[in-house]
Amino acid sequence: MKRDTIAARRAAATDDRRRHIVEAAVRAIEAYGTEAGLSAIADQAGVPRPHVYRHFTGKDDLDQEVGRHAARELSTWIRPSLTARGTPASIIHGLIERVVQWAVDHPNLYRFRARLGSPAAVDELVDALAAYLRAAGYDTRPPAYVVAGVIGLADAGILWWLDHPDETGRAALTDWLADQVWLVLADMLRRIGHPFDPDATLSPRS
């Protein structure tokens, strides 16, 4: 029992140190960009440079943890939109609006997350869309590859806009992305034999 307690404490301490380094890396990326170096992370963490990777297998391991952290933060921010009531177009527009807002507030972290990808985001959006399908009377799940494509479409548009903000306004970007996402999803729904009425008001069903 004592050994188990000691092992549990050590594991908890390791998790805390990993979390501390990940949060420091997030601050460094927010401040200095996606290529923030080891020195910047060490400064944010308040540890010597050699200690940064002590609880990780290397840079890639830390990068993946930071990417997962960013994905969780974005997911938490957009989650209210995944259970919203409204027409398909209004629900999608509200979701895109929140994604763009998060990207504006955290441009470097958004870039970092998009570069690494997030399988968990695909799963969450598939679940959300399936809940709306159930509300419309369809007991099915949308293809994950289509949802992944929609995420890629939104990421590509937002990333381009972050680097070229003078090309269009934020509202216009949001409108365009929402329209494109709806077109892709509407086509997918028709292909699987479950078309949505664009004017119907939907509420997700668990």
UniProtKB/TrEMBL annotation:
Domain HTH tetR-type: 15-74
DNA-binding region: 37-56
UniProt entry tagged with the keyword DNA-binding: yes
Molecular-function GO terms, alphabetical: DNA-binding transcription factor activity; transcription cis-regulatory region binding
One Pfam family named in its UniProt record: TetR_N
Listed InterPro entries: Homeodomain-like_sf, HTH-type_TetR-like_transc_reg, HTH_TetR, Tet_transcr_reg_TetR-rel_C_sf
Keyword DNA-binding: yes
PROSITE patterns given in the database record: HTH_TETR_2
Keywords, alphabetical: DNA-binding
Domain of life: Bacteria
Protein name in UniProt: TetR family transcriptional regulator
